[in-house]
Specification:
Order of helices and strands: EHHHEHEHEHEHEEH
Strand content: 5-15%
CATH topology of the largest domain: Rossmann fold
Number of domains: 2
Distance between the termini: 20 Å
Strand order of the largest sheet: 5-6-7
Oligomer: single chain
Radius of gyration: 18 Å
Largest sheet: 3 strands, parallel
Number of helices: 8
Structural class: mainly alpha
Number of strands: 7
């Protein structure tokens, strides 16, 4: 199961700025803490809810949330149209994704803390094939754990099984690590931010690893399908 921003797609350098701009334009809130670590739920819906609570002393309404999402989507599309090279797949991401999709012994899913429309826009724009991939996002739940559980449930349905032998989540943030640990899944960290905080039973790479390396380190090699196949 994969996160999106900073894990598969290099978008962190503009995503947060556009989010804050959308909130300002729709709700008139300019005093926004851009350090997502300061929020209880590091998801777009969770952050928006906390911003509104701090600014207005009340819960965000469905209409407000929908309006911010719509504006955020519009801003991102406009940004991508002008800055055509700013949203790129992280090196190794496309080969890893393509190789996993080809395997019959591994299920894949997306569980993103971002809103679904923007996540799909970035993934598909970078060349990730999302056909038949279970997908859950922050427009459906507030906590990252709930989003991940929803993606897990959809993966069980998509792959027509009642359970998986094991589940691993690939992410780049401390909040990804915390949520994965709370669910009892294996965590695979990518990016420099997590290098120094990995537990002994967790895995880390600077960026998306090769599929054979990932599956071997997870101990997921199957007798009928070895992990020596290189991602192309």
């Amino acid at each position: 199961m994969f996160d999106v921003d900073g894990t598969l797609v290099d978008s962190l350098h503009y995503d947060g700025e556009l989010f804050c701009q959308a909130v300002d334009e729709v709700l008139g809130i300019r005093e926004i803490n851009p350090d997502w670590r300061a929020y209880t739920h590091v998801t777009s819906s969770g952050i928006l809810g906390e911003i509104v609570l701090r600014a207005f002393g009340r819960l965000v309404t469905e209409e407000e949330s929908a309006a911010v999402q719509g504006r955020f989507n519009g801003l991102m599309r406009a940004y991508h149209a002008v800055h055509t090279t700013h949203c790129q797949p992280l090196p190794g991401g496309i080969p890893l994704w393509a190789a996993l999709k080809q395997r019959s012994d591994v299920a894949i899913a997306i569980a993103t803390g971002g809103w679904g429309a923007e996540a799909r826009l970035k993934l598909e724009g970078c060349g990730y094939d999302l056909q038949q991939v279970p997908f859950a996002a922050a427009c459906e739940a507030t906590s990252r754990q709930a989003i991940m559980q929803l993606a897990h449930h959809r993966a069980l349905t998509q792959y027509a099984v009642t359970a998986f032998d094991a589940v691993a989540y690939v992410g780049d943030g401390h909040w990804d690590q915390t949520a994965t640990r709370s669910l009892g899944w294996r965590f695979v960290g990518v990016g420099a931010e997590l290098q120094s905080v990995m537990a002994d039973d967790e895995l880390w790479w600077p960026g998306p690893p090769a599929v054979n390396e990932l599956l071997e380190c997870l101990g997921w090699c199957m007798a009928s399908q070895t992990c020596t196949t290189q991602a192309e």
